[in-house]
Amino acid sequence: MVDDRRNVELNPLFARVGEATSFPRNRIPEAEALPETAYQVIHDEAMLDGNARMNLATFVGTWMDDYADRLYREAFDKNMVDKDEYPATADIEDRCWRMIAALWNAPDPDNTAGTSTVGSSEACMMGGLALKRRWQHRRRAEGAPTDRPNLVMSSAVQVCWEKFCNFFEVEPRYVPISEDHRVLDGHDLASYVDENTIGVVAILGVTYTGMYEPVKDISAALDRIQDDTGLDVRIHVDAASGGMVAPFLQPDLEWDFRLPRVASINVSGHKYGLVYPGIGWIVWREAGDLPDDLVTRVSYLGGDMPTFGLNFSRPGAQVLLQYYLFLQLGMEGYRRVQQNTIDVARYLAGEIGALPDLELWNAAQDIPVFAWRLTSDPDRRWTLYDLSDRLRMKGWIVPAYPMPDDLTEVTVQRIVVRNGMSHDLASFLVRDLRACVDHLNRADGGPPDDRRAGFHH
Hints:
Blueprint: E1 7-9, E2 22-24, H1 35-46, H2 66-74, H3 87-103, E3 113-117, H4 120-141, E4 150-154, H5 159-167, E5 171-175, E6 197-203, H6 215-229, E7 235-238, H7 246-249, E8 262-268, E9 280-284, E10 296-300, E11 303-307, H8 317-353, E12 358-362, E13 369-374, H9 384-393, E14 400-402, E15 411-416, H10 423-442
Parallel strand pairs: 4-5, 4-6, 6-7, 7-8
Antiparallel strand pairs: 1-2, 3-9, 8-9, 10-11, 12-13, 13-15, 14-15
Helix pairs in contact: 2-8, 3-8, 8-10, 9-10
C-alpha cells in the first residue's frame, strides 16, 4: 500500500455525517470544518509528541498549578508591548525585573534598567548588543575604529551566542573546554582579549552539563588583564538556568552584581523560574549600562513608551505567571522547590554514577543537571546513543551527544531535573535505566554504528 502523505485524515467516528474527514497537509482547506473536528485532527497528531514530564532533555518548565493555568487562560489576549492598553500588566513587568535585580544584588534595583523578553535567547541578544554599543561609543570617543568587535566565551556556550555573533557581525572567540578546564574559568583568558573585545560571556549553568562557570575567577582574570594592559572588559552573565537557582541554593556564591565587572545578567523565567514557555528577563547593573540609543520610544495605540526588545508584539500572560510565582512562593518557597529538585538530581547522579558502565562527568553540584559518559571498556558493543534509544522505548527522553569542539571525542548523556520530577518518578527512572544497561550488556549485536545525536542544545 502506498503511503500517501498529502492528506491528514480523521477517523470518521470523530466527524459528523457528510463532513470532510481528510484535509490537505500543506495547503489551507477550501471548506470550513467544525471546531471539534479541527481540534481532533490536531489532538491526534500531537499525541505523537513525547510525554513532557518524562522529557529529561529540556530545561523548559512543563508543569504549573491549576491557579496558574486559570491566570494563563485569563491573559491569553494580552499583548506585552501594548503598555497603554494594558498598564497593569506593564506595571507588573516592571515589578518583576526589579525583584530580580534585587535578587541579583544590583546596587540600586529600583533605578536600574531591565525588561522581560520572549526567552533567554532574546535577553542574550540584548545583553550582547548593549556590550557592543558601549564598546562602539568608547572607541569612537577615542578616535579608534569600530569595525572588528569580538566577544569571548566558552566553546560550550549556548547556540544563541553563535547566532548573536552571526546576526550582529561580532567575531566569536571561543575558549576551548578540556578535561583539565571543563568550563571557562579564566585560564589563558589574556590570549583571547584585546582592544576589540566588547565583553566576556560567563555561563551560570552550562547547557551541556549544568556546571557553573566561576564568574568571580573570570572577573579576577580580567582585573589582571586590566592591570597589565589597561583594557576594561565587562562581563555578561548568561544565567539562563542558574539565575533562579544560585540565589536560593548557593546564596554566598559571588557571581552577580556583587562583582563590579558584571554589567548585565539574563535568566529564563521558563526554566528554573518555573513558568511555562516563553519568558526571559535581563537586568543591567545600572541604568547607564544600557545605552540610550538602544531604547526606542514609540507611539502605539495612543501611548508613548520606551521599548528595547528585539520582538514587538508578544504574550503578556507569562509575565503575570512569573509575578504569580513570586507572590505565591516567595523566597522560602523558591528555596524549598529548588532544594527538592537538586536533591532528586543528586539522588539520580549517585545511583547512575554507581553503575559500573557509567562514569559521572559532573554530579549536579550546581544546578539540578548532571551528565555522564561510558567507562573505558574495549569489549563493550554499545554506545550511549543505544542507551538513549532504549530509554526512549520506556518513555524517557535522555539525550546523548558529543561535547563541544576540542572535546568532541567525549560523548555524554545528560539529565535535567525540573520541578515535578519526584523522588518516586526518579526511582522508576533508575529502575528502567538499570534494565536498559543490563539488556545492552546481554545483547549480541554488531559493533556500534556511527550515529550522531538528534539533540541540539
